Amino acid sequence: MVSWSPAIFVRGENMRTIIVITFVSLLLSSCTAKAQTTTPLTEQERFKLAADYSRDHRGLSVLVMKGDKIVFEDYANNATVDTPWMLFSGTKSFSGVMLCAAIEDKMISGFDEKVSATVTEWKADKQKSQITIRQLLSLTSGISAGQIGVVPSYSEAISSPMKFEPGTHFEYGPVPYQTFGELMTRKLKSRNETVMSYMKRRIIEPLGIRVSDWRAPNGQTFLPQGASLTAREWVKFGLFMKNGGKWNGKQLIRKDLLDELVKGSKANPAYGVTFWLNHPGKNPLGRDIGSEEAEGLKVGLYDGAGDLFMAAGAGNQRLYIIRSLDMVIVRQGRAGQWDDKDFLGRLLLGRFSSN
């Protein structure tokens, strides 16, 4: 028979107690840590996380509008609420909205009107005669799009040679927008209006946008780039798009026309008519969207908002519009490294990108 010493028994019981307590403590600690890591950030914490990312990547402004209210604003690197900044190619999207206004005003019959109906010099060219305005502004016209950042005059633009069959290739550059400038100049001549006076009357002034600067050498408004706005002014344009053309309860431009701007082409599903879309695509150099040359989205920008679209410019200027989340987001900054996925992952989910 085995005899147990009371002292040994006590020590054994104490040891078991210590083990149990230690195990429970570790379990509770693990659960607490897990709870802490899975506790979602508040909306303001998420926005700040994104603003910090922007600041660390030479950002100047981050502004978030939810519904019709600004819910977050942050300025960095010596910028303030009153600092205007160049939109670069973020300017392009105004042309798409101007097209919609011109259709509504019956100056243009529709997106698929032939450019040659107005730019009559093109009628004798077998390929140019078939180019539609939709193809022109979706960058699938087949015209040589020109060098990014080098903006030709309107007359130089319409003289640009063909490179591809219309509708078959996407090529990013300033020429198509300046060609549209010539088309609109001719459309507006009988009305004694210029491209800029029409844009002001139909878009800028109704939205109360204060334009700090918009380049217009020799009276020809730059359409592929050239506008400078503060974050608060640019967000008005985004709000107008988010609300489907409504402003202060009034329908300024028909929603069905504006919706055409966010439909991609077969040649590039990631680009609509002057707006980048949340869809896989290629830039003119054949690399994934996101290069500085294309100023566009990376593949799979944000899976949680498939309807996201944006105006985008060099230096990582961004106007994100997400109708399903009732949000408009402005980001402005100087040229530097940038990842749309990282920024939006922080702002919308409170986490880093899984890339």
Walk me through the structure.
By secondary structure, the protein is an alpha+beta fold. It has one domain (43-349): 3-Layer(aba) Sandwich (Beta-lactamase). Helices cover 34% and strands 13% of the residues. The protein has helices spanning 6-38, 43-56, 93-104, 133-137, 154-158, 175-189, 195-204, 231-242, 255-259, 340-349; strands at residues 59-66, 69-75, 85-86, 213-214, 227-229, 246-247, 250-251, 276-277, 309-313, 317-322, 327-333. Strands 2-1-11-10-9-8 form a 6-stranded antiparallel sheet, sandwiched between helices. Strands 3-5-4 form a 3-stranded antiparallel sheet. Helix 2 (43-56) runs antiparallel to helix 10 and helix 3 crosses helix 7. The longest helix is centred in the N-terminal third of the chain and has 33 residues, at 6-38. The chain is globular. The termini are far apart. Mean pLDDT is 87; it is low at 1-12, 17-37 and 283-300.
